[in-house]
Amino acid sequence: MKIQKILNNNVVIARDEQDKEVIVMSLGLGFRKKPGDIFPSEDAQKIFVLSDEVKSQYDQLISSADPLAAELSETIISYACNEKELSLNDIIHITLTDHIDGLLQRIKKNVLFANQLTMEIRRAYPTEFSIGLYALDLIQTKANCTLPVDEAAFIALHFIDNRTDHAANSSDLETILKFVTDITRVVETHFQITLDEDSISYYRFVTHLKYLTQRIISGNFFTDDPTLYESVVAAYPESAKCVEKISTIITFKYHRKISTEERAYLIIYVEKLTRESK
């Protein structure tokens, strides 16, 4: 592979053996290198092959953007892919770079935005929000500035929107965020507890809620299973009372009735969640 442009010590733009332009990530790959240098493809830990349409837009963007924006963006994407094992659309190389370029300009003017959904994003998408926090720390270090935590939520949205496994459109995302917030508040109020948002059980609970929201949106629910439901209610009566409140909210607010099997699984998740919290 031949280096076209060095973004940082770990990320370069290169041409592969088929003369396609690619983004290559590997520890120390760009260190003491210059455009035109050759390196073996075996040295690449992560390769992003951009589609022709995205490549054209990306080349245009980085030709006018602050070079630091591309460096920060690719470092953050590398972290998301390697450390958090996210699978992402290639368009994120454009959207995130453009966002960070705008942010760097706003930092110079001391113009920063508030994000009204920060808490909801943190609750519903802890993985993406953790990437946002990583990005926040990185940007603050590289740009020598202080940023509000709201910016972590803005960056998290790019990873929520561009996941290839379960990307959500903007209207569905708003529904998911509100739904997760509504349900977690019901659980906290019913049991008079504060949920540990960093716990494994919370992560599993929220993941279940997100998939339940998608089923609510699509109307594709699990079937009824009265036997399972009755046995779970008998085993966990207090969690069952909580889930009945949740079921009522879903009926009146989202105009859907969830099956007994859906309620049975919710009871199990609530029981595990609250048992750990207590």
Automatic annotation (TrEMBL):
Annotated ranges, domain PRD: 64-169, 171-278
GO molecular function: RNA binding
GO process annotations (BP): regulation of DNA-templated transcription
Entry keyword Repeat: yes
InterPro entries documented for this protein: BglG_antiterminators, CAT_RNA-bd_dom, CAT_RNA-bd_dom_sf, PRD, PRD_sf
PROSITE patterns: PRD_2 (PS51372)
Highest taxon, organism lineage: Bacteria
SUPFAM superfamilies from the UniProt entry: PTS-regulatory domain, PRD, SacY-like RNA-binding domain
Pfam families, alphabetized: CAT_RBD, PRD
UniProt entry keywords in alphabetical sequence: Repeat
Protein name in UniProt: PRD domain-containing protein
